[in-house]
């Protein structure tokens, strides 16, 4: 019943409407909207759905004329972590770099969250830890105020946020001697476009292109109707390294970088359509799970490069039909890769995601390498936490669960 490709997910952008009336994003309302739309879906004629998309696209165009609060350097905060002292951070802002102490010639990654996010973004810790292990300094960026507006306003704010981050990077290179070529912006969703604008801004001001930016399922809505010079594009950096997991819904569907990975085809991920009614937090899973998978796949690809080998191919169909086996291969977590084009790979539905079910493996006719066992310890502790969360969610919410069950189940 809960199927990934239903227009219900698009319809749930009526969440934008909820945000307009309520001025904030409420996950609970999102759930109600989702449940309500599933129920109503069969009653909505196709022509009306088309109208909805027309209105939605119109919003993209008119939104350019909307007045938004200015984004100032106070709205963007940086938290620097280094390997010497991974538990502590140095907090700074664009005009206050005195405390920043970066190793000369050391590499520095900048993590940029998406819409409604903040420094608590669930993927920051894992990618940070994996990069610290590779001797990167890691800066977690928080732009929560401009990110917690209506979606279309946050999407406009991305440009100004990027400008502030780019200026800060230029200052760091001038005052702290960290070469621009050692800086690596990594962004998810709206953050995926922010890293694009960072690259463009750095180039404009220094004449130097960043060697690489990483965009994790860069946002689709409102960006898919923009011309290439108003979004992340293939000239935003020397290598524009993109991972697609939710193309066509929350993510950007088409090729947008120089090195585009389409995981499991790039628009929907295995295991993402599950709703576990004992765990209320999973009710929104079908909506955001595909989109949120990208940073975790990248985190694993950094830690287990050999488990994430992708195959250059013209299309997912050709890849699935084994038509590209002799072509170029590249590891999705390889931060030195210079390959260009569209690359495909398959993953499984549970962590670690590189583990593919026996059945699927047979179907894919593909051999997965041996060291699949690494990482299971971490995974089981994660499951443990999940179990605890489940316990917590039992009780007062059972009425809602019943209601949800009658619609979804
Ligand atoms: C930036 O921060 C100021 C002060 O906290 C706030 O008033 C303003 O709304 C913020 N800007 C945005 C775009 O959120
Ligand atoms: C990417 O965007 C920049 C900045 O707007 C623009 O100058 C450049 O031409 C664009 N590149 C492509 C390939 O569209």
From TrEMBL:
<dbReference type="InterPro" id="IPR029058">
    <property type="entry name" value="AB_hydrolase_fold"/>
</dbReference>
<feature type="domain" description="Lipase">
    <location>
        <begin position="63"/>
        <end position="353"/>
    </location>
</feature>
<dbReference type="GO" id="GO:0017171">
    <property type="term" value="F:serine hydrolase activity"/>
</dbReference>
<dbReference type="GO" id="GO:0016298">
    <property type="term" value="F:lipase activity"/>
</dbReference>
<feature type="compositionally biased region" description="Basic and acidic residues">
    <location>
        <begin position="355"/>
        <end position="394"/>
    </location>
</feature>
<dbReference type="InterPro" id="IPR033906">
    <property type="entry name" value="Lipase_N"/>
</dbReference>
<dbReference type="InterPro" id="IPR013818">
    <property type="entry name" value="Lipase"/>
</dbReference>
<dbReference type="GO" id="GO:0005615">
    <property type="term" value="C:extracellular space"/>
</dbReference>
<protein>
    <recommendedName>
        <fullName>Lipase domain-containing protein</fullName>
    </recommendedName>
</protein>
<dbReference type="Pfam" id="PF00151">
    <property type="entry name" value="Lipase"/>
</dbReference>
<dbReference type="InterPro" id="IPR000734">
    <property type="entry name" value="TAG_lipase"/>
</dbReference>
<comment type="similarity">
    <text>Belongs to the AB hydrolase superfamily. Lipase family.</text>
</comment>
<feature type="region of interest" description="Disordered">
    <location>
        <begin position="355"/>
        <end position="409"/>
    </location>
</feature>
<feature type="transmembrane region" description="Helical">
    <location>
        <begin position="25"/>
        <end position="44"/>
    </location>
</feature>
<dbReference type="GO" id="GO:0016042">
    <property type="term" value="P:lipid catabolic process"/>
</dbReference>
<keyword id="KW-0812">Transmembrane</keyword>
<keyword id="KW-0472">Membrane</keyword>
<keyword id="KW-0964">Secreted</keyword>
<keyword id="KW-1133">Transmembrane helix</keyword>
């Amino acid at each position: 019943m809960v199927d990934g490709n239903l227009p219900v997910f698009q319809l749930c952008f009526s969440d934008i409407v909820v945000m307009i009336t309520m001025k904030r994003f409420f996950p609970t309302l999102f759930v109600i909207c989702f449940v309500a739309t599933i129920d109503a879906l069969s009653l909505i004629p196709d022509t009306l759905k088309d109208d909805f998309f027309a209105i939605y696209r119109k919003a993209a165009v008119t939104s350019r004329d909307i007045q938004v609060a200015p984004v100032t350097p106070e709205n963007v905060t940086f938290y620097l972590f280094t390997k010497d002292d991974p538990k502590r951070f140095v907090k700074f802002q664009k005009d206050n770099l005195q405390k920043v102490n970066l190793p000369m010639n050391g590499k520095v990654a900048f993590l940029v969250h998406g819409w409604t996010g903040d420094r608590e973004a669930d993927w920051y810790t894992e990618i940070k830890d994996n990069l610290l292990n590779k001797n990167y300094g890691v800066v977690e960026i928080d732009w929560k105020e401009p990110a917690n507006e209506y979606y279309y306003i946050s999407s406009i704010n991305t440009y100004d946020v990027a400008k502030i981050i780019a200026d800060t990077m230029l200052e760091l290179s001038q005052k702290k001697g960290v070469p621009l070529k050692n800086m690596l912006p990594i962004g998810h969703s709206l953050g995926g476009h922010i890293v694009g604008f960072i690259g463009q801004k750095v180039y404009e001001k220094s004449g130097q292109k960043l060697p690489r930016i990483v965009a994790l399922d860069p946002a689709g809505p409102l960006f898919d109707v923009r011309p290439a010079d108003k979004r992340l594009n293939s000239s935003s950096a020397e290598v524009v390294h993109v991972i697609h997991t939710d193309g066509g819904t929350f993510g950007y569907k088409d090729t947008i970088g120089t090195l585009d990975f389409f995981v499991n085809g790039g628009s929907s991920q295995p295991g993402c359509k599950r709703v576990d009614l004992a765990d209320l937090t999973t009710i929104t899973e079908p909506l955001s799970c595909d989109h949120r998978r990208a940073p975790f796949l990248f985190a694993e690809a950094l830690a287990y490069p050999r488990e994430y080998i992708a195959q250059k191919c013209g299309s997912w169909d050709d890849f699935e039909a084994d038509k590209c086996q002799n072509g170029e291969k590249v590891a999705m977590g390889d931060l030195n890769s210079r390959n260009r084009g569209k690359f495909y790979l398959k993953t499984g539905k549970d962590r670690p995601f590189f583990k593919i079910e026996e059945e699927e493996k047979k179907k894919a006719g593909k051999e997965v390498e041996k060291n699949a066992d690494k990482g299971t310890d971490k995974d089981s502790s994660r499951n443990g936490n999940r179990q605890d969360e489940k316990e917590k969610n039992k009780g007062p919410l059972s009425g809602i669960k019943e209601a949800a069950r009658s619609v979804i189940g």
